[in-house]
Amino acid sequence: MTGLNDLLQPHVNSGQAPGAVALVARGDHVEVRAAGTTSAQGSVPMARDSIFRIASITKPIVAAAVMMLIEDGRIALDDPVAKWLPELASPSVVRTPAGPVDDVVPAARPITVVDLLTFRAGYGFPSDFSLPVVGLLFSELKQGPPQPQLVAPPDEWMAALGRIPLLHQPGDAWLYNTSSDIQGVLIARASGQALPEFLAERIFEPLDMVDTGYDVPAGKLGRFTSYYRMAPAGGLELVDAPDGQWSSLPAFASGAGGLVSTVDDYHAFARMLLAEGNARGRRLLSAASVRQMMTDHLTAAQRAASRLFLEGQGWGFGGSVDVEAVDSWNAPGRFGWVGGTGTAAHVIPSTGTVSILLSQLEMTGPTPTPLMREFWAYAASI
Questions:
Q1: Is the pTM of this model over 0.85?
Q2: C-alpha dihedral sign at 152, 158, 159, 162
Q3: What is the tens place of the pLDDT at every residue in 74-87?
Q4: I need a labelling partner for 362 at 20 to 30 A (CA). Which of 84, 237, 286, 295 fits?
């Protein structure tokens, strides 16, 4: 394999991906390639500035915003979140994870800010999606694949969350996704700004991330990609078109997976992390905060219990952390995450490497796709 185009094009030719954009950077060397088209039936070529629904690689951006509030002195890692989220002041916990949702005990201690950042607040997805409490996350909170226009406004969403018991006691277990959405509400309430406004002011504008946000303006819809899943009978099934759910600002801005972006915009965020919080001569985060984000905070038992999602990796704030080199594509300290719409973004601080893959085909589960693994192996080889 000689370049990114050789990696991307076979997946486009096979029909597994209408198109994709990928970036690999190390130091001053930056390689970017676009392949395919922005829609399965269209003729618009994929381009470097094509806009994608980035899904769960939203999570590191939102975690960085929480760290900014901590540095501002508005919140602290050990603060109980009930000060800003009174709906979570007296949480209950199901007596056993598989038990009925009305068989509960009181939480042993308050949920804290660091519980949200480490995904150990007690809310979220375990390996078993059939548990009764998990069903409420789908039905009451619309957790799962992003559907921005179907989610209730933040106050209504939080009221529903407050009626759902925790699956585990705070601090006991790593559970996926929901904590990032709660972080988004925390940011809004602690800052006094709507989440899209806070992210724009504190992250997107300083980093010149001009195409990143929670909706795509009419003038940019021509660059916005369509979003697909594999149909049960084979072939691609359209999930969302450019004039669909991201064409207007949603009532609930999801901290877990609501953003759209481009490969160069996300590269700007990644470069800020690698520069330990600095960007274009301006400090957005302290080096200590960036290191906290990219440090594994889980116990060995928590990592083992979360293998369906983490595959043995640890978890920092907003993304996974490779705790040891277990394959040809990873490295100790590699930080980042994948998104269910077919996205992936990682940094390796020890080598100064950034790898970003944006595609438009929904993942079928938590396991990374073959394209992602091939892309990571390529990024590790340069």
A1: yes
A2: positive
A3: 999 999 999 999 99
A4: 295
